[in-house]
Amino acid sequence: MALAIKIFEFNAFQENMYILYDETKECIIIDPGCSNKNEEKVLSDFIELNELKPIMLINTHCHIDHVLGNQFVARKYNLSLFAHELEKQTLLMQPMIAQMYGLPYDPSPQISGFLAEGQEIAFGNTKLKVLFVPGHAPGHICLLGEADHVCIVGDTLFAGSIGRTDLPGGDYDTLISRIQSELFSLDKETVIYPGHGGSSSIGKEMLTNPFFK
Fold first, then answer.
1. Positive or negative, the Cα torsion across 130, 201, 3, 163?
2. pLDDT at 1 over 80
3. Who's near 135: CB < 8 A, 6+ residues apart?
4. Residues near 65 by Cβ (< 8 Å), separated by ≥ 6?
5. Distance CA 176, CA 36 (A)
6. Cα separation of 208 and 153, whole Å?
7. Model confidence over 79-110: pLDDT tens digits?
8. By three-state DSSP, how is residue 91 classified?
9. 8-state DSSP, 101
């Protein structure tokens, strides 16, 4: 069995949450945006039905739509939170952001494991490489599965667009530069799985994304 990727679209921001797993049934949970009991049940039912064993909780970055379910996942599966060290401050701001949007928010646990550029994440028979792609958020990371030609890109690169850069810690020039150096250097067949919307490929975005014309 190759790497399997399950996508859930959660919360009012229509955020993509991912579960990655392989034949060992070990899995990692990325950017849990589940924002109510129904969404939490959809997530936990999938894990139970497929007899998965969550071993790691990861945030590509810590904006509110990507962290709404952190506390639920961490508590239910006894997981620590992993993210880039530069997202510590972003995460601390989220209770205020949730209040601003009028969102119910059980505050996320703090980051207890820091993921750095070039680091390898292993679960089951799968290995992912951490790419550092700031610009949308100061400590934004992407997760590359080279053997499977897939990359979880969060809110850096979308099908036909890029992440917004007008939020605290965002920087347009940095984002464009890092997408070109870190993502556009990947195999053109690599499928990208973004934080919102549908998947695409590196090759397609290099050719058609209007931000790189």
1. positive
2. no
3. 156, 163, 165, 170, 171, 172, 173, 174, 175, 176, 177, 178, 179
4. 11, 13, 15, 33, 195
5. 34
6. 18
7. 999 999 999 999 999 999 999 999 999 999 99
8. helix
9. H
How many alpha carbons lie under 13 Å from residue 31 in its C-beta half-sphere? Answer: 31
Phi, psi of 204 (to 5 degrees): -65, -45
Assign domain 4-212 to its CATH superfamily: Ribonuclease Z/Hydroxyacylglutathione hydrolase-like (3.60.15.10)
DSSP state of 199: -
On whether the CB atoms of residues 194 and 153 are closer than 8 A, the answer is yes
Amino acid at 118: G
Residues 10 and 27: their CA atoms lie apart, in Å, by 19
| pTM value > 0.85 | yes
Give me the DSSP letters along 16-73: EEEEEE-TT-EEEEE-----SHHHHHHHHHHHHHTT-EEEEEE-SS--HHHHTTHHHH
Distances in Å between the Cα of 43 and the Cα atoms of 48, 104, 107, 133, 204 are: 9, 18, 19, 27, 31
- Give which of 79, 84, 37, 81 is closest to 60, Cα–Cα: 84
Tell me which residue of 37, 95, 25 sits closest to 62, measured CA to CA: 95
Q: Where are the domains of the chain?
A: 4-212
Q: How far apart are the first and last CA of the chain?
A: 38
Q: Tens digits of per-residue pLDDT, 115-132?
A: 999 999 999 999 999 999
